[in-house]
């Protein structure tokens, strides 16, 4: 075998490098303000937030809002293409799935961060909303109350 072919064969026989360690980061939640199209500050726990009558702009809402955007962070060291699936599930009353999304892959930035989003429609009066993010063997949940009444 020619030296360059031998080197190529040896390189091909080498096992692929293991993926870099990565972890599930924080879960953020933001109201979508319908009057201006803005997103609220992060309202996920432990942030101080009252989700009372957000559909008419009450509680801690700055404007009326009925939709919620959930943002989940994945962390690693540097820029990487990660093939660990990420699943985000939001559950409401009676453990009913409101929305869910699965990401087969994640591309992190040079800073080692990536953010994935899930949009929840018409949840302003849902009551208790539980968001769970699962990434490989890691799991994290956050609970938010969006209640309505007179």
Keywords:
150 residues; four-stranded antiparallel β-sheet; mainly beta; single chain; 1 helix; Immunoglobulin-like
Helix/strand class: mainly beta
The rough form would be described as elongated
Helix and strand succession?
HEEEEEEEEE
Number of strands: 9
Rounded radius of gyration (Å): 21 Å
Count of all domains:
1
What is the CATH C-level name?
A: Mainly Beta
Give a description of the structure:
This protein is mainly beta and 150 residues long. It has one domain (19-146): Immunoglobulin-like, CATH 2.60.40. Helices cover 7% and strands 43% of the residues. The protein has 1 helix and 9 strands; from the N terminus they run H-E-E-E-E-E-E-E-E-E. It has one helix at 3-13, and strands at 23-33, 65-75, 81-82, 86-91, 97-103, 106-107, 113-120, 127-135, 138-146. Strands 5-4-8-9 form a 4-stranded antiparallel beta sheet, with no helix packed on it. The longest helix is centred in the N-terminal third of the chain and has 11 residues, at 3-13. It is elongated. The mean pLDDT is 91.
